[in-house]
Amino acid sequence: MEKPFHRRDLLGIKDLSAEEVLGILDTAESFREISSREIKKVPALRGKTIINLFFEASTRTRTSFELAAKRLSADAVNISVSTSSVAKGETLVDTALTLDAMQPDCIVVRHSSAGVPHQLARISKAAIVNAGDGTNEHPTQALLDAMTIREHKQRIAGLKVAILGDILHSRVARSNIHLLTKLGATVRVAGPRTLVPEDFESLVEEGLTVAQSVEEAIEGTDVVMILRIQKERQDSAFFPTLSEYAVHYGLTSERLALAKDDAIVLHPGPMNRGIEIASEVADSARSQILDQVKYGVTVRMAVLYLATGGRPARDDE
Ligand code: CP
């Protein structure tokens, strides 16, 4: 198979070409049926070692990277920061160099600070995969969102996508805006003015518009992506109360009725039910939230494969 992705690291979507994004998605398609088998394992990455280094909480991303590695027969190790030497004051760089000395093929990292994966990529011999860095990017989330959209809409180009809520703190929004506009979708973002940063306006020519209201953003869309209110990143009052947020910006059935009849609903999780999304929407037939989780494993299989197997050796770069 021709290599669709020639980089060692996956640090973000911003710097990828549309062809590279499509190459990762097509590789994921080729791995899709493995997860439906009775024996969910192929030897593609036998002998490879993957370390999951998560400095922030995660259910979906960490578990799916571990499952993805195991379904490809790689050895997967999860580092729990609270029980590692980070808790004794070891620096990020010393932790990374220590893990690198054990000769893993790939380190998957999540950190609350933007740029940490890029820092590790400069000092590590292993491939680095960004599993979410601060408010910067969450590339594998955007890839699994794209795989879910392609499954239900058979395309990305020409679709209208609304991304709603806490855009300011959302690495998911950033990665999705880069990916969706690269592939020819148009994206409308909306939320409280305090949570929709001004610099997003500068991306208008790339297929992004900032809508004046949630209703305006949803009108006629094919995909409605609602973001989590990130309480852990809110160091000032961006809106008065959570209940007011739910009233003015929450995705209810009434607001969803403004989208196309066959519009799908996505949420990266974890959900704050009754705040950014009503339970009746989250549990409706329009909701593809569990498909997002399912394709998270498939997309991460593709990313690990390309980062550790389907890539040139470092010396070839
Ligand atoms: N979407 C996402 O990143 O979920 P987790 O925080 O559970 O990994």
Q: Within the CATH hierarchy, at the fold level, what is the topology of the largest domain?
A: Rossmann fold
What is the helix content? Answer: 25-40%
How do the SSEs run, as a string of H and E?
HEHEHEHEHEHEEHEHHEHH
Low-confidence runs: 311-317
The CATH top-level class label of the largest domain: Alpha Beta
- Tally the helices: 11
CA-atom Rg in angstroms: 19 Å
Please state the overall shape, judged from the principal axes of the Cα atoms. globular
Main beta sheet, described? 5 strands, parallel
Arithmetic mean of pLDDT = 92
CATH homologous superfamily designation of the largest domain? Aspartate/ornithine carbamoyltransferase
What is the first-to-last residue Cα distance? 19 Å
Can you count the beta strands? Answer: 9
Give the DSSP E fraction (strand runs of 2 or more residues). 5-15%
How many structural domains are formed by the residues?
Answer: 2
The bound ligands are:
phosphoric acid mono(formamide)ester
Strand order of the largest sheet: 7-6-5-8-9
